[in-house]
Each structure stands twice: as C-alpha cells, then as structure tokens.
Amino acid sequence: MDLVLDKVKKSFKNTMAVDDVSIGLQSGLYGLLGSNGAGKTTLMRMICTIMNPTEGSISYDGVDIFKMNAQYRNILGYLPQEFGFYPDLKVRDYLKYISALKGLKHFAAKKRIDEVLELTGMLSDATKKMNDLSGGMKRRVGIAQSLLNDPKILILDEPTSGLDPMERIRFRNMIGQLANDRIVLLSTHIVSDIEATAKEVFLMQKGKIIDRGTITDLCNSIPCRVWICRVKTCEADKIIATTRHPIAAIKNDGDYTEIKMLAGEKPSIEARCVGASLEDVFLYHFGENGGERDA
C-alpha cells in the first residue's frame, strides 16, 4: 500500500499553490501541518482527484490515480473542510444517500451505516435532521460519511473544526485506531490533533514541504531552544512587549509570570531550558515572529 506524490505542482494563473511536493505514504497516520493558505487543501484535493496537478504525478501502488478512476475512488474516503448536505434529510437518510453514491449494496450499506454511526457517536442522533445538528455533530456526520466505504486511503481536511475538547479527544483515539491498516492523511493547523498519534508530519508553507519527519525529529531540528523565564508579574509586560523572541506561552500565577519563548541563546540569567514540543516547532516555522532571524 503505497501512495506516492512525485514533484507535484499546482498553479492558478500567477499563483503556485503547491510547489514541487514529493512524498510517499504507507499505512499509518500522517499529519499535514501549516497555517491557513499554505496549500494543504489544494494538495489534498489533488490526492482525491478533484483537481489535476499542473505538473508531476500521484500514484497508488505504482498506478497513476487519475487512470484508476472508479477503482481509486472505491478505496478513497474524503472529508473536506466544508461538505454539502440537504438540510431536511435525517442523518441516517443522508448516509444512505452517500452510500448509494459510493455504490454500496443496500444490505451492506445498512450494516455499515450502523457501524460508522456507532464509531462517531451519532447512533442516538440518527433520526435528527441535518439542519438541526450542532456544528460539532455535523462534523461527526462528515467523518462518518468518509468512512462508509471502509477506505484504504482516508483524507481528512481540518476534521476537528467545530468539535469541543472531548469530541476532539474521541476523534483522535478513533483515527489512531483506523490508521492501523490504512493510509490516513490529516490536514490541520491544530497541533494537538496529531501530536500524540502521527507517524510522520509534513510542514507546509507557501505550497512547499519545508520540513518533514517524526515528531521527535522535528522537535530536535529547530535551530533554537525553548526557554522558560520566571519574572515578577510587574515586570512581565515590559519583557513581553520588547522581546524579539517568539513567545509560546504566558502563565501568570500571581506575583510571578512564566514566559515560554524560543531563543538561540539563554535570554536571561534565570531562564531554564525545556524540551521542544510540536507546538514550538509550529511557532518557529509559522508564528508571526517565527524563524531563525528572530529566535
């Protein structure tokens, strides 16, 4: 099971949305991490054959996915950022409709719908109209529809948008289990979605993959270090306003404030060094003041 992107590019007039991306995916969960506008959605839409690359190729087990046609779509599940639905359809009826579009036989569809409703925690809400669902519940239905054909390749574009913290934890656990025997590519700008479960993470910026690796590799790769400075709260505002270093977190506990920042050298005498997290990696590459010039 190999999904290979080879020198993939996608341009729109004078804009290069995806620029020379080459990656290979096998079974497991992969994270595609980047800020909004990085090109993540365009890349995923090409993997789902919704768009054709301007240059390069995408193949599954050595065969071009655009030549596989229905054979490829039969093994593909896709959750876009926004998915369409008829507002007056009940959840179960919506999933029946999607099952028919995916070519599932009636008996197989009925059984599978029950399975994905149970998996996404929507079984008790199956008779509600789509328009009456909360944003998080609609998102869970979107996840359910992407799983109907038990896909070998699962593409999820910002899947936890609108989910509350408990739903997000449930989703992470579910996707971690699903990734055992399929390729899962999850696009997000929410670091916690992938920090505990991703086999490998791709960092995307301005259409390019600027770094990749395991979370440990990425945390070890940033050329600056992560420091916590504990200062008197009365002095904290001045330090925060004047520092050139990217600030990852601020914690006030009364008389003292802890400031977590990225810096190439020890920023103050009292600063202590701590291990980098994926969130620190994200800040370094994508933060407003991120990058070596400021760290």
Summarize, please:
With 295 residues, the protein is an alpha/beta fold.
Which key terms come to mind for this protein?
295 residues, alpha/beta, Rossmann fold, six-stranded mixed sheet, four-stranded antiparallel sheet, 14 strands, ATP hydrolysis activity, ABC_transporter-like_CS
Walkthrough of the structure:
This is ABC-type multidrug transport system, ATPase component. GO terms for molecular function: ATP binding; ATP hydrolysis activity. InterPro entries: AAA+_ATPase, ABC_transporter-like_ATP-bd, ABC_transporter-like_CS, P-loop_NTPase. It holds the Pfam family ABC_tran. The chain is α/β, with parallel strands linked by helices and 295 residues long. 32% of the residues lie in helices and 29% in strands. A six-stranded mixed beta sheet has the order 6-7-8-3-9-10, with helices on both faces. Strands 2-1-4-5 form a four-stranded antiparallel beta sheet. A four-stranded antiparallel beta sheet has the order 12-13-11-14. The radius of gyration is 22 Å and the shape is globular.
